[in-house]
């Protein structure tokens, strides 16, 4: 009976230790099978997460589906195997798995969407697609990008977003029916909380790998006995 145990190193990396007992198997072939199973489990989990609509609404970024599509087997040897999440998805998954702070790479501020139409769009793309001009009201640590809007500011949306931001130094009071609407929140950094559901639970992954390993081993034994 093959046993699989999940482990986490000091840096938070996930690994799965396979106990073969006294069984003699083709380790390279088994490791390849287990790597494929791990990749499939991650893909299934992320595709399920992708099916949940974002709270803001608007254009879907398909963040989790993209991560699933970028998940592949990186390396297989007699000693083990590695599953890789390629492209930008690797770093994106890491920030959700461990949490952390995001800072702008080129621009001075991050642009955090406040309205559904802006979700998944950079500010310039929003202007191009909507034909609406944005203008900034900025203070030292941040501010807002506004657009002229005949319906006025959505005070509930602005207030809800500001309530999540530590401090309130950049809050701008807008009178009801003012023909301006905040579209993006500008920040020099944003904190991403650790997502406890970023990957399946280690115990569930270990159980899936153990089941696949034992099924594979049973097939090998049947083949050796001429019972394919």
Describe the fold and architecture.
With 228 residues, the chain is an alpha+beta fold. Helix content is 36%, strand content 24%. The chain has 6 helices and 10 strands; from the N terminus they run ββααββαββαββαββα. The chain has a 4-stranded antiparallel sheet, with no helix packed on it. Strands 1-2 form a two-stranded antiparallel sheet. α1 runs antiparallel to α2 and α1 packs across α6. It starts with a strand and ends with a helix.
How is the secondary structure organized here?
Layout: E1 3-8, E2 14-19, H1 27-50, H2 63-69, E3 71-76, E4 81-85, H3 87-98, E5 100-102, E6 110-113, H4 123-130, E7 134-139, E8 142-148, H5 155-163, E9 180-187, E10 190-192, H6 202-224
Antiparallel strand pairs: 1-2, 3-4, 5-10, 6-9, 7-8, 8-9
Helix pairs in contact: 1-2, 1-6, 2-3
